[in-house]
Each structure stands twice: as structure tokens, then as C-alpha cells.
Amino acid sequence: MLNMIFTGLVAYDPKTSKANNAMADSITSSDQQNWTVTIKPGWKFSDGTTVTAKSYVDAWNYGALVTNKQVNASFFQYIAGYNDVAPASGSPTAQTMSGLKVVNDTTFTVALSQKFSTWPQTLGYSAYYPLPASFFNDHAAYLAKPVGNGPYVINAWNRSQNMQLRPNTGYSGTNKPQNGGIDLKVYTDTNAAYADLQSGNLDVNNGIPNSALKTVQSDLNGRFINEPAGIIQTLSFPLYQPGWSTDGAKLVRQGISMAIDRPTISKVVFTNTRTPASDWTSPVLGASGGFKEGLCGQECTYNPTMAKQLIQQGGGFPGGQLTISYNADGPHKEWVDAICNNVNNAMGDTKSCVGRPVGTFADFRNQVTGKQMTGPFRTGWQMDYPLIQDFLQPLYTTGASSNDSHYSNPQFDSLVSQANAEPDQTQAVTDFQSAEKLLVTDMPAIPLWYQNGTVGWSSKVSNVMLDPFSVPVYTAITVK
Question: Rounded distance, CA 22 to CA 148, Å?
Fold first, then answer.
């Protein structure tokens, strides 16, 4: 919904993932660290007020300030002064970031705390959207009916039930709606939604239930898309545990990876709605954006004989048995059991590997963040923006916000910093891939599969496609 009522400084091409200027007229820097942002004049919020540079600076400062408790605060961590407004202590020493300055109505400057050449390409993410004055002046009223600067406006909203979105007649962007509006419906049962899709009571459904995947093509007469999205699923290791941090444990981790039959699990368990992973990014990035099929090489290729050799050579599983933890309230048991079957078959021992269910996702994540894991555990990452940086830096640099394995390699960190400082996009991607190759040897997390996006639609509509985030491009949908 946020992406339907807002437009950011940049927007991502739904077919190529490329970041193109949207509200931004230009985003420039001479040193990859100090940026000048100029926005296009004349843009309006749907309440008629003008979008200015201050609309961005105020929104970003609000989003970063720790006392506002915004879940996307960490996206501002690269801006100078972030640590003053969001210190670990929770007691800010400043209310605004020193790196943000309004120059005039259409220009603001951003000083980053480090060089970050691809920073402009991150700015299509929802954390960076502008906010109107009404957000600050009458917060409760704004939350009841949010106002944006995007292609749609909220006409009516019944929380947890439905939302009516209608075209924003004053919209200045290029992606103007090709329809008369979108009615969003909330379903608590994916099978009920699918039944409505089949009967024509629902036009677009990107939550196809697993039970329908085997028949969806015939059910919908081919009106179905199944393609890789910007999501990767992994198994991470608790490298803070002594048994998993030895040189021998690297071989064990590689061996576990080679024991996994990714193609068969993707086909049998997931009905081909997963694509076997051979790197730590996503195919949606494309070759120019950093995806390199096969980068992981033999370490991500099914080879049970070599898997057993490496596991034995590395000293076996710490503790004697491999346990794979996952949240029991999600659809994970079947694939975890399948991986354990692979490992048990490779080792010739039916008790080498077992799944370890943890009650709820909240309980599971609390154990992960509390460093309580003793064996590998389920992890996944949905990209925030289509950059190789987003698949590597937040997950694998030392002390990064989403580094669940607590992996630390100074060479990896150095290559990431080198890539961020590189003004040439092609060279930056090369540097990131050099860092990524270190993950092959170190294997802090095993790439399993890229999650696919799926969508089905009724015979009443056409021109349905998925963007790189596996969300339908609603503005492009036409009614027959």
C-alpha cells in the first residue's frame, strides 16, 4: 500500500530492477560521500500541499530518531549524525541528523559517514519517502487516512478488512494508473482467496496457496506467473559457538551445503516455486547488478560423497548431531526434514540430523538475536532495494544489523568498503563479488534457494506482472 500512495526520489523498473530518478531531478556527489539532492518542482501531496526538500529531511529525521521507535530507523545509519539520534543507549543527544541540510525548497544535502557510491539507488525504499506537514501536525488523523504523493490516494479504509485506492488526479509521475482504482481485500484464509479468484470475485491474487500450485496453471487457464523474486533463503550457523568457529568447522559447513539436494527439494517440496541457489544474492539483480549464477561452485552443488568426506575431515558435527532450528508456526518442517534426510543419507546414519522446531516466529527470533542457537538455523532475506550491497553488507559485515551468524572477516569488510567507495558501478559490483567469494570458503550461511513470486489473475484483467519484490505492478493492470 505504501508503494501505491507514495513515490520516492527513485523508482525501480519492474522489468530490469534498474533505479531511475522519479521525484529526484538529480542526485550528485564528487566524492561518493557528500551528496546533493535536487527534486522536481511542482509535485504535490494528495492533500494539495507541495512536496519540498523539507518534506524529505523532516521525514528522514523522524524515521531515524530512536524515541519515535520506527522499525526502519536503521536505513538512515549511513547518514552522519545517526548515532546521535539513535544511540544504543536509547537516549539521543540530538533530535536531528547533522548530515541533513535543507538548502532551498527543491534542494537538500546529505553527508554520509562513509563513502557509498550506490547510495542513490537505495532511495526507492519506503523508509525514504517524503511526509507532508499533516503527518507532524495531526498525527492521529494522518494515521487514520495517510496522505502521500504517489499514483493512488486512499478513498476509504477499514482496518484489517479492505482499502479503496483511487487514482491521484494530481499525480506528477510517469507511472499513472491504467485503471480506475484498486480495492484491496484482506483474507485470513489463502484457500478462500483462491476460491474467489477462480469464481471471478477476486481479480488478482499473489498469495496462491501451496495446495493449489500443482493445478494453478489449468485452474486459471495459464493466467499465472511464477518467477524468482528478490528473496533468498539460507541456513545460518552460530559462529559465536566454539564448536562452529574452528577451521575444521568450515569444512563441516561446506559439507552440509554439498549434502543438500536443492533441485529435488525445490521441485518436490515447493512445486518449483523455489529456484536452487548458487550464490548469496538473487537472479532479479541480473548480471550487471551483481547476480552471478554458480558463484558458489561445487560447495553449493549436490555431492553426498564429497559431503561426507568434508564433514568427517572437519571433525564431524559439533555436539555429535546436527540440529536445524526453525519456527514451527511457519511452513518449514517439510523442507527441514528433507534437508535432514539428505544429510542422513550422505552420512549413512538416520540420526545424524534432526529438525528443531521453535514455537513461534517471535520466540525463534528472540533465540537468534539472543545468541542462543547451538546449530544451524533458518534465515531468509528479502531485498530492500535491488543492489548486491543489500544482500551482503547488512548480513555479513562485522557487527551488521542483520548478521545473525555473527560472521566476521576483516578482508570481507575491507572489500565491501572498497566497493562502496568505488564510483564506477561495474567495478563496484566486481569488488562486491570478490567479497562474496569469501563466503564460499567461510560458509557462515548456506544458500538454499531463491524464493519465487507468484500471482494469478482473473479473465477480467490483463497486463499483470510482478516487480522485483514479487509485488504486482498495480498501476499497469488494465480492465478488459
Answer: 14
Instruction: Supply the pTM of this predicted model.
Output: 0.84
Q: 330 and 474 share a domain?
A: no
DSSP class per residue in 155-173:
EEEETTTEEEEEE-TT--S
The rounded distance, in Å, linking the Cα atoms of 131 and 57 is 9
Spatial neighbors of 341 by CB under 8 A, at least 6 apart, are: none
Checking if the pLDDT of 144 tops 90, the result is yes
- Quick one: cell of 179? 485503471
Query: How many angstroms separate the CA atoms of 446 and 395, rounded?
Result: 13
Task: Average the pLDDT over 430-450 and give the result.
Answer: 97
Candidates 150, 147, 143; CA nearest to 174 is 150
Question: How far from each other are the two terminal CA atoms of the chain, in whole angstroms?
Answer: 24
pLDDT in tens, 260-290: 999 999 999 998 889 999 999 999 998 888 9
CATH number at residue 22: 3.90.76.10
Helices (H), 304-348: 304-313, 333-347
* Residue-wise pLDDT tens digits, 152-205: 999 999 988 999 999 999 999 999 999 999 999 998 888 999 999 999 999 999
Q: Is residue 117 classed as helix, strand or coil in its secondary structure?
A: coil
Structural domain harbouring 75: 2-146
State the Cα–Cα distance between residues 397 and 407, nearest whole angstrom.
7
Q: Is residue 301 within 8 Å of 245, Cβ to Cβ?
A: no
Give residue 201's region: left, alpha or beta (phi > 0; psi -120 to 50).
alpha
**Residue 301 CA neighbour count, 13 Å, CB half:** 7
133 lies in the same domain as 9: yes
pLDDT class of 468 with cuts at 50, 70, 90: confident
Number of domains in the chain: 3
